[in-house]
Design a protein that fits this description.
With 350 residues, the chain is of the alpha+beta class. It has helices spanning 12-19, 37-43, 46-52, 61-70, 85-91, 129-143, 163-176, 219-227, 237-247, 277-293, 300-306, 314-326, and strands spanning 2-3, 6-7, 30-35, 74-77, 80-84, 107-111, 119-124, 146-151, 154-159, 187-190, 194-200, 254-257, 261-267, 298-299, 330-332, 344-347.
């Protein structure tokens, strides 16, 4: 495929999308056929749909089924109903009731230490994404360690990772996964020093553009989950994650692409002096992006405030900016500016 003036190899994910053109959407495929109306309300949590939509529950079962059919959660099949993958993956009371969908449930694992050698908890998801989302986020949050801090003579507990960042990354992983991948699912892995969230499939846009670009792999899923209040579908999720990391004085999140998966990592707090060069460059680039998408520019002062450093550390921050510029992640907002003190910067793509 052509990339600017060069030809580059297509990824396996890109090739799969090309070969799948014209094929029916996996979400609209059949999860279960020949269901009675009783089967539909037994297998799907219809009450949760109306609760999340903030709508009154209909007085008749026919009205419930009509609403679900209009959303393409079910389809009419002569005297029976068919439940689509879309309906099951979102509203199944138990995903194991649908052949093959139990492997699509999110899996949460807690390890002891910083590696996978010893597992303390391994919990596969049971319910559909919409039905079980809030309980999943609550469960993950409860497992995240908290530290007691003293501020203005008051003691309070502060979580290692903010709930809003966890929520956004889990929602992104569920929505943007590649459902055509078999034998894998969304993984949420908690270590003593980080939280990793991965989903099957490679992203349609480069990881360094997550903050300013948006493209959903599963538009049907993203659209309904937005209306259910689970995501916003306007590309602000990663902005919020990065902003939350800065507010809570955490290292910059890391987004990586593997052979078959996309991984997002939140790191526990460490001091600026303990950050390696790559972590500092990543924080500088993300801060610069965050400033740019809010119609501002990054300066030495704003980056110093992001790292919560005093004025006498301006030189150390200048070295970070120089390293990030050398890595071609940021550039001068005004190349003709002479004063180093008042220089401002923008992302390389701006």
């Amino acid at each position: 495929m052509r990339s600017t003036e060069n030809l580059v190899p297509m990824s396996e994910d890109r090739l799969r999308r090309i070969f799948d053109e014209g094929k029916p959407d996996w979400l609209l495929g059949s999860a279960l056929k020949k269901c009675t109306s009783e089967d539909v309300v037994r297998l799907l949590d219809t009450q949760s749909y109306f609760d999340l939509m903030q709508l009154p529950y209909p007085s008749s079962r026919e009205a419930v089924l009509d609403r679900f059919m209009s959303e393409q959660l079910i389809v009419g099949q002569k005297d029976f109903w068919g439940i689509t993958n879309f309906g099951a993956i979102l509203f199944a009371k138990r995903l194991s009731s649908f052949p093959g969908l139990d492997r699509k449930s999110a899996r949460f694992i807690v390890y002891e230490g910083t590696n996978k050698l010893k597992t303390r908890l391994d919990m596969p998801g049971v319910k559909g994404y919409a039905v079980g989302f809030e309980s999943l986020i609550g469960y993950v949050s409860n497992q995240v360690p908290a530290n007691e801090v003293v501020a203005k003579a008051l003691r309070r507990e502060v979580k290692m990772f903010p709930d809003d960042a966890i929520r956004e990354l889990v929602a992104n992983a569920l929505i943007h996964q590649d459902f055509s991948e078999c034998g894998t699912s969304v993984m949420i892995e908690l270590y003593s020093d980080r939280l990793e969230i991965s989903n099957p499939g490679l992203p349609p846009i480069p990881t360094e553009r997550f903050i300013d670009e948006y493209k959903s792999r599963n538009e049907l899923l993203a659209g309904l989950m937005r209306r259910l209040g689970i995501c916003e579908e306007k590309g602000s999720g990663i902005d919020r994650v990065i902003f939350s990391a800065e507010i809570h004085q955490l290292p910059a999140p890391d987004f990586r692409v593997g052979t078959l998966h996309t991984n997002a990592t939140l790191y526990a707090h460490i001091e600026f002096s303990d950050m390696d060069r790559n972590a500092r460059i990543r924080a500088c680039y993300q801060h610069c992006c965050l400033k740019y998408v809010t119609n501002q520019t990054m300066t030495n002062q704003t980056l110093r405030e992001r790292f919560h450093l005093p004025k006498n550390k301006a030189e150390a921050v200048s070295r970070v900016i120089a390293d990030t510029t050398a890595a071609e992640q940021i550039k001068l907002d005004d190349p003709s500016a002479l004063s180093k003190k008042f220089r401002s910067y923008r992302p390389f793509w701006a």
